[in-house]
Structures are given as structure tokens and as C-alpha cells.
Design goal:
Strand content: under 5%
Distance between the termini: 16 Å
Largest sheet: none
Radius of gyration: 20 Å
Helix content: over 70%
Length: about 170
């Protein structure tokens, strides 16, 4: 199979998944929260194994504590994905605000004026998204993760499909 065909097929699959996620962001958010919970649970089990089987006795307690926290968060997200989705949405909102502020500050201090506007714009958009998440948190908390994932899948799918078409011509 040619690489261009693989890019194109992957892009089309991502476009379909992105559209599906955007059309039902609530279900996508719950599925995403459950998946994140499974990842935390797996990480906790691996960390616990390291704590009990590791040779470094000085760090066993820390590994055990991290394992316990990962397992608790994983079980909580899996057992109650609705409240986990709301909590993850809050984390995403805070992350947008913090990363946006950081990009804005870096952009304002950047010496290269040609690149400054891109960082300032990127930072401002992230801050705006963070503010929008918290301005309508009650209405969108259970849907924002699915919507963001859908948009990202759609963008990745379009990018890969375009790359597949472009690489066919060359």
C-alpha cells in the first residue's frame, strides 16, 4: 500500500470520527472520560508494580502514593464519568487560560516582530476559549471535551487527507 493511500484512508477515518464526535459531543465526552480513567488505572497498576518490585527502597513510598492516586482517579473517572467529565472540563478551561496567558506574555516579549503576532493571537484565542468555557460552564461542561476532540479529529483528518492527495501528485 502506498503511503499516500494510507494518509488518505487515515484522514477519511479521522474525518468520519470527528464528525461523529461533533454531532454527539456529550457521548464523546463521556467516552473520553472513561478512556482517561482506564489510562489512569493502568498507570496506577504499573506504578504499584514498580513500588512493590523496585529495588530502590527510598522511593517505594512515593511510587506507592502515586500508584494509589492514579488508581483512585482512574476508578473515580470510570465509576462516575459524568462528574469526571465536568472535572476534566474545568481542567481544560484552566489549562487554556494558563497556556494562553503564557503564550501572550512570551509573544509580547518576543524580539522577532514577524512571529510576535502569531503568539499573541494564539494566546488571546486560548484565553478567550478558557473564558468561554467558564462563562457557560453549566451548559457546556459535559460537552466541551467531545466537541474539542471532534474538532481536533476533523482537523487532523483534513490535514492527513490533504497530505495524501498532495503526495499522490508528486
Amino acid at each position: 500500500m502506498r503511503v499516500s493511500t494510507l494518509f488518505l484512508m487515515t484522514g477519511l477515518v479521522l474525518i468520519v470520527l470527528g464528525v461523529a464526535a461533533i454531532t454527539n459531543p456529550f457521548a464523546t465526552s463521556l467516552a473520553l472520560t472513561t478512556f482517561v480513567g482506564i489510562l489512569f488505572l493502568i498507570a496506577g497498576v504499573v506504578q504499584a508494580w514498580l513500588a512493590f518490585n523496585g529495588r530502590d527502597g527510598a522511593h517505594r513510598a512515593w511510587h506507592g502514593l502515586i500508584a494509589l492516586l492514579n488508581i483512585v482517579v482512574g476508578v473515580w473517572l470510570i465509576a462516575d464519568p459524568m462528574s469526571g467529565t465536568v472535572s476534566l472540563a474545568a481542567v481544560v478551561g484552566v489549562l487554556f487560560l494558563l497556556m494562553g496567558a503564557l503564550r501572550l506574555l512570551i509573544g509580547l516579549r518576543l524580539a522577532a516582530p514577524r512571529l510576535r503576532w502569531m503568539l499573541v493571537l494564539s494566546g488571546a484565542v486560548s484565553i478567550l476559549l478558557g473564558l468561554l468555557i467558564f462563562a457557560a460552564f453549566d451548559q457546556i461542561a459535559t460537552q466541551i471535551l467531545g466537541l474539542l476532540l471532534g474538532i481536533q479529529l476533523l482537523a487532523d483528518g483534513v490535514g492527513l487527507a490533504a497530505l495524501g492527495f498532495a503526495s499522490r501528485d508528486s
